[in-house]
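Hi everyone,

Forwarding the result from last night's run.
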Amino acid sequence: MAKQIQSVGNSKTIPSKLFDAIAGQQQARYYKDGLDWISNDTNIIPRDEVGNIVLNEDSTSNPKLVISAVTEQIATKSVLRVLDTRFQYFKFPVQVAQGETFNINTGFNIDIDTITTELKLPIQVDAANQPIDLIKINTSYESTWFYGEEANQSSTGFKQLPFVGNLQSVPNSYVLTKDIIDILIRRKQTLKFTIQTQYLTRDGSRTGLSLRLNRVNAKTFRSFEPIIIYTEANSSGDAGTSGNPNGFASNEYPVLFVEYYVDPTDLADGDTYILEAVGGNPTWILAANSYWLIEPIAIPSNVSLFGWAPANINGNAGVYDLYPDNILYNNAYQLIAKKTLGSNYELVLANGATVTNNDPVTIEDLSPFGFAGEVDGETRILSPAGLSQITYTWNESQNRWIQS
């Protein structure tokens, strides 16, 4: 017997669940079709709060178990459309063409550049998920600055900069592989490193900053002459005075920038280039403003300032020019060249000579000055100054232009 609710002030009783006309119509349709399977529609098959079908044992009022019927119709026309190829694109029987060649010009350059890459310094985040753009560099004297006082560990000298990117096999570095070398030789190219780093000192004092490019090879010992780019933060006073002996402009955020051309005669599988930095006082490097770009480029034909291997008789590798307020040293901090405010930003060599227009020059660059193509296996060009004719010959075994 259904539970009943007594109305107030009236002897009429109200059933606990009112009849749902729509649900009744749905049930009637299923009963008419003779369906007796389970349905997920609660209007057809009542369920409890957790979805169980409620059936009372030995009860004649249990609902019938019904389910919505599912029908699919596949028209003959649809099947024929899929199966009938109508032989619009093929002819049978198949014939194999022999003795015919096809020259298809797709218009695409499929010589894909797989070398160019840009390495960056990682930017950490703080507890509030905000970027931390500052990375410590080591001091030139013994201190706990680099590792932190809590680490109770002091250190001094150059430390590697943690450049990342391009799935390098060695941390903080760029590694030359056999595949890269093969591509460079085939294209008569070398690698150009474009490197920029920017700095901020902790206390705003005058601070010397050095960036060193070095190379190692875990497979075999290979000699290499590192280069050092130097600048100062917060210099003051006139050039040549004790407060500013190198003539730097005063700069709270100094930049070290260098373009380095890898020696095309000195490439080996496993060559690992690394960048290291050191500061005269506690200093950070600004990660967001620092990068290391590696790209293939035509081999220069003129002599650079510094940085080629002893076997490279052409001297067409290394550093060709400097960024304003940067000094170029060898690994022993012997002056190679400088470009500072004190020299009116002219490029001055260690012997005091001034150099103008020392950009790296390639065979292609010199074409406006008399490039005449190959003549009897030689390539004839003019010197950068356009004063005399120089003959260069490409040497396949040495992978470089050789001046006659």
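The radius of gyration is 39 Å.

Cheers,
N.
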